[in-house]
Each structure stands twice: as structure tokens, then as C-alpha cells.
Amino acid sequence: MKPKVLISDALSQRAVDIFKERGLDVDLKVGLKADELKAIIGQYDGLAIRSATKVIPEIISAATKLKVVGRAGIGVDNVDVPAATSRGIVVMNTPFGNSITTGEHAIALMFALARQLPAANASTHAGKWEKSRFMGVEVTGKTLGIIGCGNIGSIVAERALGLKMKVVAFDPFLTPERAAQLGVEKVELDQLFPRADFITLHTPLTDQTRNIIDAKALAKCKKGVQIINCARGGLIVEADLKAALDSGHVAGAALDVFAVEPAKEHPLFGMENVICTPHLGASTNEAQENVALQIAEQMSDFLLTGAVTNALNMPSVSAEDAPKLRPYMKLAEQIGSFAGQITQSGITSVHLEYAGHVAALNTKPLSSLALTGLLRPSLEQVNIVNAPVIAKDRGIKISETKHDDDGDYQTLMKLTIESAQGKLQLTGTLFSGKPRIVGIDDVTLEAELTPRMLFVRNEDKPGFIGRLGTKLGEAKINIANFTLGRSKPGANAVALVAVDGDITAATLAEIKAVPGVVSVSALKFDL
Question: Is residue 466 helix, strand or coil?
């Protein structure tokens, strides 16, 4: 059956065409109320939105088939990402499609502030000729403070430098090397405020950035500063900004976003030194076309091939990487599932080690899949999206290392878990592209996993194999393959037995009673 996508906000017709051309079924239903969306969302594998649709927990709970939410644009304030993640739903956005448009809007607003263009325009249209009233300032030689120097912030920086401005930037993730490449000075926030003639915000709205411009911050700014916000309304305490505008400490502000949207009424409306636009940052024909096409391509790739691009709640897997990762993804899930099925007590830590060829790949999805396999035997609805979150919620420490040295193998993956039972280590590799288990703790062996298996830890003593085989024969269970290994003669030994049928609890109890058996587990693998 074809994957089915619902487009619930206005997107370009070309986006609809892309879904259809890629072989997906698509419905365009714009303007749905929350209860209407809730009633139908269970039919769909994908949901494509802009900013109008609110993907709240009630919608997510009803979305029993939903695999991906795609936001045509950068902001996902209208999506409950944690709720989607807990249900294993990928949330994607298009962070680059409207970057140029938003950056240009910020520059336009800066010019409009500097030369008081809206007020001068209104005055002239009113038949006044108030040439002496509108005394502006040049931007040349002025200092622009950029809060958030990512995709959009860097675009603004490049254009400001072209205008011969000085640029200082605050961004915890901006490296000194990237700052030097852009030609900006990386500063702390407390250094930016007193130096900037203009301040422009280009940071996401998070717990760390909410209300980043408040009365305390404004007091640190130089008198006459002008502020531009094309990012998110919640970054500024609007009442504090109004007070600073009223006092003259802030000379002007240009706002494209507000704490509550749509903003039909606002204390800042009507102030001559405030320019307001109705969230136009991404509103160009080029940007709307770009983000619509991008989200259609991204969602189609994910639903058809598993490629993940611009996901907010899981590692990305490019269409190019997906074929390379596919055999390793199966190996990671099998190793995790093996460990999960034989671990009977709470897991406290998980360490994943990658060596050789696999270490050069994008291993984040592999670690997520190993966690998925590990947790699935004891938890329902675990997948690559929510497995890391579920593990963290349960206090499981996750770590990962890579190295080039692959020992006896060209590629190797090792999973080590610690639990109340102690430490368990499973090692796997690929033979001709197929997963193989090559190590269990300190025992070396080579085994291909099959749908039904028996895992036995036993004493390395004569007669054990015969006793185990006899017991399986008595239970009318056919042995398809028998793999043995031991750490050294007479020490720890393991047996991985591929069988053709299910092993009942009664048979498992009888095998546990076989002399020489230390422990036994019946394993099932979805191959």
C-alpha cells in the first residue's frame, strides 16, 4: 500500500505534484479545525504543515499510523516535538529554504529603522513635507550585534559587512574558526549589548533564549540602540521593550514576530518609532516555493527509502548514506535485540564501539537502532526515533567510541551493556554484507542469527552437546545450525542453536535442567 500524506496548510501545488510523482497518495485539506484533524489523522503516514496547523498531544495520540511530520519552514513552535518523539514520529523542518528571505527582511527592516521610512512615507502621503523631521542615521561604520549566528544570522552578517558595518555576534555554537571565516567578532552577550548600534535576533526560541531581551538586557545597551526581531516573538519581553522605547533609551524597534500571533492588538502598535510587519520573514515567492518543495522531497525520501533529512528528533540519514548503512542497521538492531532478550534486570549503561569501515560512517542511527533492539523486548512502541529518549528517561547512560583499528576484521561493532546481572558484551561484523555475531563476552565464535534460536551458557565438559541435542530431539525441535565457542578449554562456553520451531516454556525448563547448563534463553529475531 502506498504511503499516504495529508497536507493541512497551504503549500505550493508543486509540492502536491512531487508527492504524487514519487508514488505517494496525498490529500490537500487546508483550514481543518483541531477536532476535524483529529478525526482523520489516523489514516495518514505523513503530515505536511506550515505554521497554522497545531500538532498537539491530542492530535499525536490519534495519529496511529503517523511516521513523519514535515514543517515547510524552520520554526516548529506549533509541533509538540517531545510528544511526537515519544510516539516515534519523526519531526522534520526546512531550515535553509527561507534563510535568504528572512535575512533580507532583517536588513530591510534595519534600513527602514535607520531612515524612518514608514513614518516618512505616511507623512508624505498625508500631504506634509516634513523634510527636517526625519533625520536618519547611516549604517556605514555602525556596529551590528547579531544574537544567533547560524544559517540566517550568518547571511545577515555577510550582508552587513558588505554595507561596511562592524559585526559582533553572540552564539554559543559559533566556533572561533567560523567567526573568522565570516569576518565577525565572537563576543559574549554582556559584551554585545553595550557595543551594538543595531541588534538583530536570529536564534530559535528555547528555554535558554526565551526573554533574552528584557529590562536588564536593555539597560546594558547603549542609548539610541535600535532592535530588529525576525526570529520569534518570545525572545523579547515586549512590555520591557515598550518601556525602553517610551523612555528614549531604545530609539526604535522593528518587529516581524510577536509573542502572540496573529497580533491584532498590541501595546507597540501605533508607536511612530516601531515598525511592525505580520511575520513576513519567509514571505517571498521564492522562499515559499523552496520550503514546499524541500519538505515534499524530504518526506517522500523518508517514507519510501528511510532517508532522514533535517530531522529535529533523530539523526539524519542522507539518501546517499542510507544504502551504505542498511546492512549495518540490521546488524545493530540484531545485536541490540540479542542483548535485550537475554538481559533480565535493569540496564544501567550502554556503550557502542565502532571499528574499521563502519567507524567512517554516520553511526548515530546505528546507535539508535541498537538501543531500539535492546529496549523492544521489554517496552512497546520503541523505534529509532524515541529509543534514545526512552533510554535517557530510564537513567541509562549511553556512550559511543570510534577507532580505525579493526583487529581481525575489516569492520566491527561492539555493544557493551551493564546491568544488575553484570556486564554483557556482544560483537558483530558483516560477511558479504550479512550480519554475523563474532563474539559473546570473551568467547569468539561465528554465528548468523535466524528467526528462532536457543542461547546457552554452559560448562565446557564432555557430553554436553549430546545431552542438549537429545533434549531438543525429544521435544521434536529440529536443529538447523549449531555454533559453539569457549574462552579456553574447560572454562566458559556458549552455544547458539538455530532451530526450526518455537521453544515452549516447558521445553526451556527441561533444557535448564540438563547437566552442564548455566543459563538458557529462547531468542526470536525479526529478519
Answer: helix
